[in-house]
Amino acid sequence: MFQVRPCGCKGIRTCLICESEFGISTGEQKPNNFALTKLDLETCYEYCHLCDSKAWLGVNVLRDHPHHGGNPIDYRGVILIPDFLTCDEEIEMIQGCDSMQWDLSQSGRRKQNFGPKTNFKKMKINGNSFTGFPKFSEFAQKKLNQVPALSDFQTIEQCAIEYRPETGACIDPHIDDCWVWGERVISISLISDSVLTMTKYVGGITKYNLKYHYDNNYTYNPFNTENSNTTSNSYPIVRLPMPARSLLVLSGPSRYEWEHSILRSDIQDRRICMAYREFTREYLPNGSLYLTTGQNVIDKAHNFWSCDDINKNEG
To answer: Rounded to the nearest 5 degrees, what angle is found at the Cα of 184, between the Cα atoms of 45 and 149?
Structure first.
């Protein structure tokens, strides 16, 4: 299970390729991880972006709007904008990504990462190798700032993540690290539709560096501690649709109180996720770490380089 695997998987992470090649049984290794299986969708709630922070029991609830059945649950901290990109803009982003090298990642994914190197365990940032972002993605970052709630969003990491059904690509339930990544977690979906599956996080505040987040507008209240009898099964599962070309933003409760994942069964065709991250306020102007670390990274983040120039230099 822990041998070196050419597919990119490590530790308990697996994909269809290494499961077949090494005879790995995911059911034995990860009995509590639903991210590799299909859910009973009829028992899940689904977010409707046309309602006011509401999720409804069922599948494809948008088609029933505004005549939803049953009682909704409040689900706050989500911005979903369908058709955020035009078809032409989507093609431009896809072609830009595919003009560059894809790196192997875990759980059947491939990625292209642009941003400072971070060590979440040691809480260290190294921005020496960070030179900015590829030119083809500049218009998308500018378009983010045209959304009122994102007018002050400063991208300091951009990551393209590729999901393919033939590799069993998925991503396990997690919360993006809170020591360095700020309040708003952004993704733009390309090529095909998918769903983000949200499950309530019921652990302590040491995991994911939750105790280090610095947002002034939101106070994290842990639902329990590691010794509590409360489990994630005590809460509903909420599904957030991610149509192709859509923008999804998580903040507040959906950012800090719920783990998000993508199931294998929700990857039907190739999909690229363009993920964007910002600094916590400690690394921003007037923050205690701005002059030592934040300013250098932010200055570099304003640079957009041509892929043609990179290829020439490598040649």
So the answer is: 95
- Containing H/E element for 304? strand 304-305
3-state secondary structure of 258: strand
Beta strands 238-242 and 45-48, pairing class: parallel
- The length of the chain is 315
Torsion of CA 43, 49, 51, 53, to 10 degrees: 80
- The reported pLDDT for the residue numbered 28 is 44
Within the chain, which residues score under 50 in pLDDT?
28-32, 214, 216, 222-228, 312-315
8 A C-beta contact, residue 186 and residue 276: yes
Q: What's the pTM?
A: 0.90
Please identify which residue in the block is written with the tokens 């993006």.
176
Numbered ranges of CATH 2.60.120.590 in the chain = 78-314
Note whether 235 and 178 are within 8 A (CB): no
In CATH, 78-314 is 2.60.120.590: yes
Q: Radius of gyration of the chain from Cα atoms?
A: 20
